[in-house]
Design a protein that fits this description.
Blueprint (H helix, E strand, L loop, with lengths): L2 E8 L8 E8 L4 E5 L6 H9 L6 E6 L2 E2 L5 H7 E4 L11 H6 L14 H13 L15 H14 L4 E5 L7 H13 L3 E5 L3 H7 L2 E6 L2 E6 L1 H4 L2 H8 L1 E7 L5 E7 L4
Parallel strand pairs: 3-8, 3-9, 6-7, 7-8
Antiparallel strand pairs: 1-2, 1-4, 4-5, 9-10, 11-12
Keywords: ATP-binding, Nucleotide-binding, Transport
Protein name: Iron complex transport system ATP-binding protein
GO molecular function: ATP binding; ATP hydrolysis activity
Amino acid sequence: MTVDARRIRWSPGRGVLVLDGIDLDVPAGAFVGLLGPNGSGKSTLLRLLAGVRRPDAGTVRLDGRDLHSLPRRAAARRIALLAQESSTEVDMTVLDAVLLGRIPHRARWGPLGGDDVRRAEHALALLEVAALRDRRWSELSGGERQRVAIARALAQDPDVLLLDEPTNHLDVRHQLAVLELLAASPRTVVAALHDVGLAARYCDGVAVLHEGVVHAAGPPAAVLTPELLEKVYGVGAEVTTGGDGRPRIDLTPLGAW
């Protein structure tokens, strides 16, 4: 499923403009990384792409159809959003937390079925947290909660995954495992990422947000140049090409704090 945004503008009010004329094209099945410094609008853009917020101007479309023309339940079947901090309002088991992702697929007020449980258990296995299925949410570490939250998004069986810092709280092994899983997924994936090196390694494309606009977008090798990284992030960068043709990025600070 394709995702595109046209001339997206959004402000929380008080004269603050967070996004100003954002254009974004995400091909079906692509893994696109949203990059940019803190406060550049990555989280806001993900919420707009998910339909959680409405833009002040502009349009978000799924396969060419205006997102806000879809019934809410239909949109929930197609899009899963992982927020930067995931929580549950009640302390439940890990399996029950992942089964929340099946709600859009259940008949209204209908019970869970065997297929729902199978999909939830499969998602837990993919994220290597199947052994935690009967643990309480409150008993999990930050990294365990993050993997369970990603499993919940996968159990939703969406066409589009929108992920805000999916590697948050994860150790290095699990960061790589999650990004490999996303890169291999047939779904359309858009993820806000802080680590430009990991984005260069795993993403099909990147969009760099800076001062409320998409400063550059395209394949990582074309976008993540030393000049761009210095302008947007204020860092020095040495960019080389690995054996797989993808850029390898070594960052150094510029100046003092």
